[in-house]
Design goal:
By secondary structure, the protein is mostly helical. The chain has seven helices and no strands. Helix 3 (53-78) packs antiparallel against helix 5 and helix 5 (103-114) crosses helix 6.
Length: 166
């Protein structure tokens, strides 16, 4: 678990800047990735690319800590022969569960990344509480759908490669 957590911390060094720019384009705060990158660097410097780094790490580590044990348990129970497709189905279920549980952290992370000011986690949580508890679950369906597909592809492919090399 320690190695996985350290891997997530390092991966977020690359993932977060791309996520910050991508989300600003998706929210139509800027018209292109290049304009978004230039805007962030001009107004906030390199630090602006890392808005939400801490909350991304706070999302990724629990996500992995939930997804992999569920996948392993399901894979062992329902896929003893090691089928890539069955492993993918188990990964899909595990990804959906982990994604659903970590959605509130993801919402906080997204709000921080879309912020033009450096809002802290507690301020964002307070804003979301004022909007009502359902605000913490915005994008829930899309998130579990996407992570379900991702879990199927990633963990199904992983199992298929393991079978192939064995």
């Amino acid at each position: 678990m320690l190695a996985s957590s350290l891997g997530e911390i390092v991966a977020c060094l690359v993932r977060v800047p791309t996520e910050v720019v991508k989300q600003r384009v998706q929210a139509k705060l800027v018209r292109s990735s290049w304009v978004g990158l230039r805007d962030i660097l001009t107004h906030s410097g390199v630090r602006g690319l890392y808005l939400g780094y801490g909350t991304t790490v706070m999302r990724e580590i629990p996500f992995a800590a939930i997804q992999y044990p569920i996948w392993e348990k399901l894979r062992t129970a329902y896929n003893p022969e090691g089928s890539g497709i069955k492993s993918g189905v188990c990964g899909s279920v595990a990804g959906a569960i982990a994604g659903g549980i970590t959605t509130p952290i993801d919402v906080v992370k997204t709000r921080i990344m879309l912020s033009t000011t450096n809002e802290g986690v507690l301020n964002v949580i307070k804003q979301l509480r004022n909007e009502g508890l359902s605000a913490f679950l915005k994008g829930f369906t899309a998130r579990i759908g996407w992570l379900s597909i991702g879990g199927f592809v990633y963990l199904g492919t992983y199992q298929t490669v393991i079978e192939f090399v064995s």
